Every structure is written in C-alpha cells, then in structure tokens.
Amino acid sequence: MSTITAEALSATTLLRFATAGSVDDGKSTLVGRLLHDSKSVLVDQLEAVERASASRGQEAPDLALLTDGLRAEREQGITIDVAYRYFATPRRRFILADTPGHVQYTRNMVTGASTAELTVVLVDARNGVVEQTRRHAAIAALLRVPHVVLAVNKMDLVGYEESVFAAIAEEFTAYATELGVPEVTAIPISALAGDNVVDASARMDWYGGPTVLEHLETVPVSHDLSHCHARLPVQYVIRPQTAELPDYRGYAGQIAAGSFRVGEEVTVLPSGRTSRIAGIDLLGEPVDVAWTTQSVTVLLADDVDVSRGDLIVPSKDAPATTQDVEATVCHVADQPLTVGHRVLLKHGTRTVKAIVKDIPSRLTLDDLSLHPHPGTLAANDIGRVKIRTAEPLPVDSYADSRRTGSFILIDPGDGTTLTAGMVGESFAAPEPVTEADDDGWDF
User: Fold this and answer.
1) What is the per-residue pLDDT across 321-340, written as a single tens digit (0 to 9) for each?
2) Which residues lie closer than 8 Å to 57 by C-beta, 6 or more apart?
3) Distance of CA 295 to CAs 170, 232, 238, 402, Å?
4) CA distance 358 to 360
5) Facing residues of 253 across strands?
6) Each residue of 218-233: pLDDT tens digit?
C-alpha cells in the first residue's frame, strides 16, 4: 500500500461518494478494483480475499469480497447492506458508500447517497438502462447530489463497442436531465478487467475522457457552507452546576450550516425567543466564531428556555415555522404509507407527532409522469405527501439545506423508519440544453 504522509492528507480535499446500480451490474467489483489498483488494500486484506476466492473455486481473486463482508453477501454474491470504505490518494481523500442493487434494499441506497457529493450509477452494458437504474437516478436527483457518474460496466462483454456505450449514455443523460441532475459524466469501463477504472484502457481508444479515479480526484467539490443559512440544532443542554461553574448553561450541538459569531443576535425556534450569543466554546476553549460541521457549545446572554430539539438561528435569517409540511418522499418500509397514517416526524434533533393528511401524487419512473392521489405509497415508491405536525417546525427547503430541509417518518409503535422526506419542490429545474460544438460525444 502506498505511503501518504499526514501533511499530504491534511492538504487534500475530501470527497464523499456512493455507488448505485441494479443487481449484478458490478458495483462491489468496481469498488474492489478501485481499491486494489489504487494500492489502497492492505496485504492481509488481499490475502483473505484470495483465500476466500480459492475456496469457492475461483482462479483469480474476487475483488467484490473487499466490500461484501456479511456472510449472506458472500454466500449469495450480492450486496445487502451499505459498506463504507475510507481510502486516499495523493490528490484527495475519499469516503465511499457501496450500496445494494436489489429493489428491497433501496432504503440503503438512500442512506448511502444522503451525504454524498457524487454518485456513481453503474449500468450493465448488455442490459442498458433498467427500472432500478432510473430509480437510482431519481433518488440521486431528489437528494440533490451535485455530480453523477454513469459507469457503463462490462464493456468487455460487448466487444468494447463505442455504439453500445453511446446509446446507453444518451438514454441515461436525457433521463437524468429531465430530473434536473446538474451534471452527468459517462465513462465506459470493465471493472473485472480494470479498463478505465484506475488505468486508461488500451482497448477503448475511441474514448478520450478520464478514468473513474481521475474523475473522482478532479471533480470540483465545495464544502464551504459558511455562507448558507446558519443553523444549530440543539442536541444537549449543559449545566454542570459545580462550585467552579455554578451558573453555566450551554447549548451544545453540531452546526448544520453557516457560521455563528459572539455578539450576534439569534432566535430560538420554535418558541421565537431572541437573545445574543455571549460566548462560544469549542473543544473546551472559547472562540469568537464557529462554522459548519464544528461541534460547539453556545452561551446566550439571556435566560431563555432552550431544550434538545430547538434550533438556534440568526434573527435576521430565521426560517418560518409551520405545522403543514409538503415534501417529496421515498418510502422505504415494507408496510405502506397511507393517508391518515399517524407517525413520528424527526427533523434534526426534534421529534414530533404527525399525521399524513394527503398523498397528492406518486412518481412513475418509466416516463416521470405523476399518478394523482394514489392514496398509498408502497415500499420504494417516490411521491409527494402533505403532513400535519402536532407542533410547529422550523424547516428549510431541501434545495437550500440538505440538513435542515430533510426529515424521516417513524412508526410510533416499533420505531421503524418508514419514509425519507425532502421539503419543497421534487426536483431541480433542468439545465437549459446547449448545442454541442460538433457531432461527436462531449466526454
């Protein structure tokens, strides 16, 4: 495994990405090939894979076993749970989520892609775009993943034909554009043979674009959320009540977006009480300013009633509170979601009782048409819902904030997660189509 110094790692950016695709499209093999060819696999890990492969009568190591760690996954040759892997190259650090392809595990794909900045959607070159491909593209669009890579896999089984790749790329790109996906990069690969994964393929000289790793290393990623709407969900109220700190009252949480500064006027929602930030503690030390992803404790100048689940926001940029939430959801439970369903809605650190008032439409994945008022959503359905909550919630549009614009619905009886929801409009508006400079593919 290549050695990367701590100084080099600190200077590189971080990319979170997820893989998705239909069953047997080769997601785990792609991930294994990516790790193997980028020299991100330890010797003992590779030896374990070689032994497991040999015990199954395989001559070459099955690289999919690098991520398929569950016994059931190895026995069936499929991915069931999300497998997270961490690796790095001299140019960038990565957190990778290898997600399942089966329809019944779509909930896992939602989990893996919810924090991703890029999604790799695999397609078997022999089968082209199938229903699960469209479902994964729709989920990536709903979750506002800014970059999508179409990896047309198993090109070795179609003779590395450019026409096969071009037809699949054209169909998928047109579909993703209708969904409002801002960027699609199509790459022809063979994960099994290693073509265009880490090293460029000599058998597809008609393709002049980047390999998968080259694109992952160079795709622009912005983690600067300091200019977004500042939001601090309160996770815990700290009151030591010791002789040294008899009057200390701090409100702890991870800043979801934006930045907070000492002296700034803030509002506590949903109560609407206002105060001023008297101090910010970070890692036990006072600081003047804190920003996105930092876990801090905020002290207020006034004795305001604040508890877990409240949201601290700048008074000049406070979201409206509402008891009527309209959102697009992906239903992930086996039991259907119906009108009149009583649920718990978890938004940030706050959980409230709620009821499903209406299901205005269900999305048809084939042509993106809307089936009006279906009355119910089955497992893996995508649709619009209207929810009435027992208490007011300060929600943002998901387009403005993936953290404070999202929620989940929970079964109050057994705690099962039912639905993942995104507040506001379903999909981003499609980008205007521009004519290509020539008749060739713009790779």
Assistant:
1) 999 999 999 898 889 999 99
2) none
3) 44, 9, 13, 18
4) 6
5) 296
6) 998 765 555 678 999 9
